[in-house]
Design brief:
This protein is an alpha/beta fold and 309 residues long. 39% of the residues lie in helices and 22% in strands. The protein has helices at 32-42, 57-67, 123-126, 130-139, 161-174, 182-188, 196-203, 241-256, 258-264, 269-287, 297-308; strands at residues 7-11, 15-20, 25-30, 47-51, 72-75, 85-90, 96-101, 115-121, 146-150, 177-181, 207-211, 217-220, 225-228. Strand 11 and strand 12 form a beta hairpin.
C-alpha cells in the first residue's frame, strides 16, 4: 500500500478496558486513538503513538500491544501515575455501565519533525486538562501537516456539550479530515445531527466521513456526497470498528489522493468511493473477529480484490 512520505503521529488516550462479567473479570488494551495507531501499524504505515500511561503491568501490556504492530511510543505525561482504566459492569440484561479512572494531562507535547500526518480524538482531544493543551498543540502545527480528527464522544468524561461543540469545531477548522459516527453527531447537535457534516465543513474541514453502523457511511466534501455500504460479514463483535474505519480512511487517503490532494480537499467522486470502500472494508474485517483486531495490509488488499471479482 502507498503511504505518506513521513510518519503518522497519533495522539490520545491509552487505557485498559476492564469488563466485570459478574463471575469473571477480563482486561484488554483499549482507547480509541490507541486503536487507530495499532490499525495504522498493521496496515504498514509508519506510526508513532503519543500518550500517557504508567510503568505498571497495564502499561507494559499497552507497550507490548503496540510493539506487535510496529508502532513506536512517546510519552506526554507523568509515567509515575497508574495506567488509566475504563471498567464496564455488565448487567443481567446485557447492558453495561462504565466507571472511568483517567489521567490525561498532555504535559509534554511530542516533537512533530518528520511527521506528515497528525491524528487525534476522543478523550485525548476533549477530556480536560489535556484536551485544551492538545487543541493549542494542533492549532500550532505547520500548514503542511495533514490533520485528521475523530471526536468519538464519551460524554461521561467530557466537558458540557456546548464546550465540547466549540472545541470540536475549532479542531475542524484545522483538520482536513474529520470522521464521526451518527451517535457523535446526535450528541453534538441533538435533534439536528444531519447538519453535522455541513457545520464541520463550514468550520474548515475538507472531508467529513459519517459512519451509520449497519447502514454504511457517507463521505461529504463541499461539493460531493458519496454513500458507502458496509462489508457484509458475520459480526462477532463491534469493538474497535469505528477506529478500524479511521485507520483505513487515513491509509486510503494516502493511497488514493496523497498529501497534496488531502490538504487541498481535492477529491473526485470515484476517489471518495474508493477511499470510503477501503475504510468500510477495514471496519468490516474487524467486526468479523473478536476484539479490536484490525486487518493487516495483506488482509485488506485481499478483501478488496475479492470484492472486484
Amino acid at each position: 500500500m502507498t503511504a505518506f512520505a513521513g510518519r503518522v503521529l497519533v495522539i490520545g488516550e491509552a487505557l485498559i478496558d476492564v469488563v466485570d462479567h459478574g463471575d469473571r473479570v477480563t482486561r484488554h488494551v483499549g482507547g480509541s486513538p490507541l486503536n487507530v495507531a495499532f490499525g495504522l501499524g498493521r496496515l504498514g504505515t509508519a506510526t508513532t503513538f503519543a500518550s500517557e500511561f504508567g510503568d505498571d503491568p497495564d502499561g507494559l501490556a499497552i507497550r507490548d500491544h503496540l510493539d506487535s504492530a510496529g508502532v513506536s511510543v512517546v510519552t506526554v505525561g507523568d509515567a509515575g501515575l497508574p495506567t488509566s482504566t475504563a471498567t464496564a459492569r455488565i448487567g443481567a440484561d446485557g447492558s453495561a455501565t462504565y466507571d472511568f479512572d483517567l489521567s490525561w494531562t498532555f504535559r509534554t507535547p511530542p516533537q512533530v519533525g518528520g511527521m506528515s500526518v497528525v491524528h487525534f480524538g476522543s478523550i485525548g482531544a476533549l477530556h480536560l486538562p489535556g484536551g485544551d493543551r492538545v487543541l493549542s498543540f494542533v492549532e500550532s502545527l505547520p500548514d503542511d501537516v495533514l490533520v485528521t480528527f475523530d471526536p468519538n464522544a464519551r460524554p461521561a468524561v467530557m466537558p458540557p456539550r456546548e464546550v465540547a461543540v466549540a472545541a470540536v469545531e475549532r479542531y475542524a477548522s484545522r483538520a482536513a479530515v474529520v470522521k464521526l459516527s451518527d451517535e457523535d453527531a446526535e450528541w453534538l447537535y441533538p435533534g439536528d445531527a444531519a447538519s453535522a457534516p455541513r457545520r464541520l465543513l463550514d468550520a474548515g474541514a475538507k472531508l467529513v466521513a459519517v459512519s451509520h453502523g449497519s447502514a454504511g457511511s457517507v463521505l461529504h466534501t463541499a461539493d460531493l456526497r458519496v454513500e458507502v455500504p458496509v462489508l457484509q460479514v458475520d459480526i462477532v463483535d463491534t469493538i474497535g470498528a469505528g477506529d478500524a474505519y479511521m485507520s483505513g480512511l487515513i491509509a486510503a487517503i494516502a493511497e488514493k489522493v496523497g498529501m497534496e490532494g488531502a490538504l487541498a480537499g481535492s477529491y473526485s467522486y470515484a476517489q471518495l468511493a474508493e477511499i470510503g470502500l477501503m475504510a468500510a472494508v477495514s471496519a468490516g474485517l474487524t467486526v468479523a473477529r473478536a476484539g479490536a483486531m484490525p486487518p493487516t495490509a495483506a488482509e485488506l488488499q485481499r478483501a478488496l480484490r475479492e470484492l472486484e471479482q
